[in-house]
């Protein structure tokens, strides 16, 4: 307390932030981070899975075009084996999913998207996504195909 020129006593106010106020802010930020981070990682897993499903559908379209040209899925009319092209979609999945042909014969194919790295450990619900020539969609995880696709 300080005395003014008129003789009245006045409280001297200090400027700044106290340690208690800083600790309260840190606790609030910590609680928000505990809530937000799992939601964020879950969103990343779902978006990468959706991208893998799109790549599988793109690869299936390629296989159908291949069949239209060669009248079979497994090889060209010259006998060269089929292989998926290195599309931008497949390149973008590098490190998260490997899109490949699981099995192929003259009149059918099965494509798969196998999760890699952190995607494999975080996405146990769906796991490997597969797509066949007749549009059958399956998953290797504990989830349902309708949910994962």
Question: Can you give a write-up of this model?
Answer:
The chain has 149 residues and is of the alpha+beta class. It has one domain. It is built from four helices and six strands; from the N terminus they run E-E-H-H-E-E-H-E-E-H. It has helices spanning 19-70, 88-92, 117-122, 145-148; strands at 2-3, 9-10, 97-105, 108-115, 129-132, 137-139. The strands form two sheets. The chain has a four-stranded antiparallel β-sheet. A two-stranded antiparallel ribbon has the order 1-2. A hairpin with a 4-residue loop joins strand 5 (129-132) and strand 6. It is rod-shaped, with a radius of gyration of 29 Å. It starts with a strand and ends with a helix. 18% of the residues are buried.
Average pLDDT metric = 92
Largest sheet properties: 4 strands, antiparallel
Q: Which runs of at least 5 residues are low in confidence (pLDDT < 50)?
A: none
Reading the helices and strands in chain order gives: EEHHEEHEEH
Instruction: Count helical runs.
Output: 4
Strand order of the biggest β-sheet: 3-4-5-6
Kindly, what is the distance between the CA atoms of the first and last residues, rounded to a whole number of angstroms?
A: 70 Å
Number of domains: 1
